[in-house]
Write the structure tokens for this entry.
Amino acid sequence: MRKFVVVVSVLAVTVLPAQTRQQWRDSLEVLNAKIALEPNNLNLHLLKAEANINLEQWDYALAEYGKILHADEKNLAALYFRAYVHSQQRHYDLARVDYESFLRLQPQHFEARLGLAHVLQKMGRKTETFDELNRMVQMFPDSADAYAARAAYETEQKLYDVALYDWDEAIRRRPLNSGFVVSKADILITLYRMDEARRELNAAIKRGIPRYALKEWLDKCK
């Protein structure tokens, strides 16, 4: 079954490198030289921290964000990405503080709320995780990802009936997302509701999702 994969992919906040590692190292060398000339340039420190992140130099990134926030405690980029770095280092209590500080300044930021929900989940704070996921659905009622995030956590908690409802809402908003469809089908198969799972998968194929993307779950329904 793939529920764990779905939970991680929905709740985790990721930074995707746009360059190779060598290019990031080269960028870092250039940035260090520029910072030596302009030590108070916060944008240069932000760019250096970005390079540190993409090289997985977490402690160096934290040091950069600390410098930035010492000079500008309301710097949104530094708060957001320091929270991400803390999360990568499993310092979930510190990540929570930064996400909450960020959201006090920018309460409508979807990715930060998703990051906070992920951190609360990792901390084992079930009630607070649900509170944050419910808040996301209320704040972003048209977002398929908001419903999917809540559905993924409900699935992890084996709250299958409410998870099915939320997967339906996510699918309704993004009907060609195969991940949403197989997540719903996975629950139905777990509950031995094979006919319903088969109907869901066949309906998805008619909507335009390639059959090969659903084959594993179709086979389970036989």
Remarks:
- Confidence is low (pLDDT under 50) at residues 1-16.
